[in-house]
Each structure stands twice: as C-alpha cells, then as structure tokens.
C-alpha cells in the first residue's frame, strides 16, 4: 500500500481570479488522522474538494494514493466523503437504508441495481455506526446526530481507504459532537483508514487527531496535541477561541495588528 | 362510455394521453425533488419559438419544437454552470425571448390559418395516427432512459456532490434530464398545449409528495394520478364539452388541493 495517502504540491486555487489557496504543499501519510482548522473562507472546503476532484487546481498537482482525483472518482471505491450539508431537503422521501445504499452506487455502476451483497454492506455499516434499528425510518425523521451517523455509514459503504469529512459536527449539540469524534476515531482504528476532517471544534479535533493542518489560504502543519495558541492565531489571523486547556474553559482574546 | 371509445380521435387522444401521463408522472417526481418546477415552465414556453419556426420553414413543428426546447434547456444549464447568472434568472430571460422569437417567426411566416391556439392550449383533434406513433416512439425512449438511470437520478436529486464523488456522471445526467424534459414537453403539446404542459410536470409529483413519504410509492402515486387525471379529464371534457387540456389541468389542481385541505381539515376538526 502506498505510504502517502494525499500528496499536494504547489497547489493554487482561484475563483474568478481571487486566490483561495496559495502555494499549498501537503503530504498526508497513510493511516493518519488529520484535522483541518481555519476561519470561515480560509479555503478548508476548497482543499477537500480539490482532494476529492470536485474542483480542478488552478496550478499545482494533487495525487491521492498516487492517482489523480478525477481518475479515482470514476472508480468510486477509494474515497468516502461526508459533505458539509448532506441533507439539502429534509423531506426527501427516502429511508435511512436507501441513503446508506447510495454509498454503494459507485461500486454497483451504471445500469445495474444494488444486489444482496450491497444490502449486506449497508446493514453492516449501519451496525458499525450503531444505528441498525433506524434502517427503515425516513431520513428526515431522525435526529441530527443520527443523521450524521447515517452519512458516515454511507461513506463507509464505499469501502474507502480515505475518509473525508467536511464539518461533521457543525449544528450538533456538545454530546453529539463528541460522539461523532469518538466514532470516527474508532472507525479509523477498526478499518485502517486515513481520515481528513475539517472542523471548527478545535478542542474536539485536538483530542483525537495525529496532525493538525491550519489553513488560511496558506497552510501550516502541526503535530497535535498540544497545539499552541500562537500557531492557531497565525492561521486564523485573529484571536481564537481556545477552550480545551486548563480546568475551566476560557476564551483568549487578544487584539491583533491587522 | 362505449360510445366515447368508439370515436377515433378520442381513442387516439386516450392512447397518447396515457403515454404522456406515464412519463409526466415519473419525471414529475424528479422535477419536484430537484425543485425544478420553474425549469419545466421555462422549457415548455420556450418550445413556442420552435413550433413557430416549424410554421415558418413549413416543416413538422414537432421536430423544430424538440430542437428548440432541447437547445433552450441546454442553454439554461450552461448559463447556470458557467456564468454568475442564477437559474431562475436564466429561465426568465430565455423563455420570454423564445416566445418573442416565436411571435416574430409567426409574423414572418404569414400563415394566419395555423392553429396557434391549439399549440398554446392543446387540441386533441390534432392527434392523428402519425402523432400517436411519434408520441409512443419518443415516450418509450424517455421512459426506458429514466428507468435505466433511476438509481442515479435519485442519488443526484438527493445529494449531487456525493453522487459526483461516487463516480456518477452528474453533469451528463443533468443535461440528459433536461433533454428528456424538453422531449416530454413537446410530445405533450397536442394534449394540453405549451402553456398548460408544465402542470403535468409539477402537480402529480407535488400531490404524491403530500400523500407518501417514500420515493417508490411517490413514483407510483404520481404516475397513477397523472394517468387517472388525463383519462378522467378527457372523459369529463367530452361529457361537459369543455376544452380537454384545461379540464385535465383543473382536475390535477383539484386533487392537489384535496391532498392539502383534507389533512388540514382533519387535524383541525380533531382538535375541535
């Protein structure tokens, strides 16, 4: 197996001439759990989308397990993805099992229907994320935390080597957030996954990941934990919420120059 | 009833109507789930330009209509993808421009005896054996393609980004769906006309969504409703001597209102 899961060299991405990512060089080793932190508009989702092949780089090179993302996409069996807002229409008339089965469609291919082995995989992954009892429920009926589990199960149905999660804990309450971090950590160990997770939750990320990528158009890579306030601030470009050290959670506020 | 079915033109209208409503019933579900109701309106109105072009060039307006509607459908998608124009803006512009172009074509063709009214509001008398064959040919192709890519169309409607990452040819399917909408709009013109055809693409799916929470039953309910309303509307229009397209659309709208008001009344009466 390739030692490098994601290899990014001199990546630049611009929208309408405005640079979103500049001179990004990043190498993610196979089997690592990497958190991506950064302020709004820093290019976090853009970085993920380049890795997924959803956005083509303006300049530079991206390889995932030694292949171009565009090429990998057509195989539909390497990368599992949890989009930022996976449920665009909360009344969409499908069951939990239907949603998880969608994760198999890349493997099933065009003009073919999912077979018994796909159903088996979907059920197995629902069990893995602890919600097999919800299989027949409508996707809009279950809680936000349960929905995220469904979408994680769908990503696992791809049987991925790389799991990419875009803000999986946003809009969840504190307990559900922690459950998601725990779950992803467990899945990573169990399935030998490389995990790339964008998050706003600095504390949650720092507790579980191996490396932290701080991003604000340019990137900085840190070993984690602990990760220093200054390092975070240099990425965010302003004072940051800094809640995960000390006994009493507190916020560090500092006036910055620009 | 036997008397009704013995009339040749009504037989053909019924045959064409069943094919058209089968298609509209299925596509309508995707139109609703992908929030494309206005796209349906835009494409159908744009077809007017194509139909008028047919009169001008003295060729079968069905085929110029198909060409025009497909072109406009692709243009709407293209503009949306590659420029900063929002989809509804693009539709608003294209459909008004196409209708204006249609009027100019009609003026240039100087054929004042053509049945413009029939194209706008439907005219089942225009459904001859040739039209039935055309409707069945195009309809069978669209139905087959929809069923073949059913699983991908559901995935696309649910979560386009994830579908893309899973290797589904998202862009090709988006274009394909628009082309199919354009084709269905054109073959529905004789039955309900350009102005009213969007009702067949919107109301069955919307009503089915009120009735059921699962996509498979939604497709069945939507199709059953479309077929039922087209057959029922044709019969009613013959009985009351009403315009057939309008009767079909009114029947659809009536059923839609029922699916909203009955649950509302029930919940309020239960409370009282």
Q: What this model shows, in words?
A:
The complex is a heterodimer of chains A (258) and B (272). Helix content of chain A is 34%, strand content 24%. In chain A, the strands form two sheets. In chain A, strands 5-6-7-3-8-9 form a six-stranded mixed sheet, with helices on both faces. Chain A folds into two domains: 141 residues, P-loop containing nucleotide triphosphate hydrolases (Rossmann fold, 3-Layer(aba) Sandwich), CATH 3.40.50.300; 74 residues, no CATH class. The longest helix of chain A has 18 residues. Chain A is of the alpha/beta class and 258 residues long. In chain A, strand 8 and strand 9 form a beta hairpin. Chain B has 272 residues and is mostly helical. Chain B has one domain: ABC transporter involved in vitamin B12 uptake, BtuC, CATH 1.10.3470. Chain B contains twelve helices and no strands. In chain B, helix 3 packs across helix 10 and helix 7 packs across helix 10. Chain B is globular and about 60 Å long. The chains are: A alpha/beta (258), B mainly alpha (272).
Mean pLDDT value of chain B: 90
**Helix percentage of chain A:** 25-40%
Tally of separate helices of chain B:
12
Q: Main sheet of chain A?
A: 6 strands, mixed
Key features of this structure:
heterodimer, A: 258 residues, alpha/beta, Rossmann fold, six-stranded mixed sheet, three-stranded antiparallel sheet, 9 helices, disordered C terminus, B: 272 residues, mainly alpha, ABC transporter involved in vitamin B12 uptake, BtuC, 86% helix, 0% strand
Helix-strand blueprint:
The complex is a heterodimer of chains A (258) and B (272).
Chain A: E1 4-15, E2 18-29, E3 33-37, H1 44-52, E4 59-64, H2 69-75, E5 79-82, H3 96-102, H4 105-108, H5 116-128, H6 144-157, E6 162-166, H7 174-191, E7 194-198, H8 202-208, E8 211-216, E9 218-223, H9 229-236
Parallel strand pairs in A: 3-7, 3-8, 5-6, 6-7
Antiparallel strand pairs in A: 1-2, 1-4, 8-9
Helix pairs in contact in A: 3-6, 5-6, 6-7
Chain B: H1 2-5, H2 8-33, H3 37-57, H4 61-82, H5 87-109, H6 116-121, H7 129-148, H8 150-158, H9 160-165, H10 170-211, H11 215-240, H12 244-271
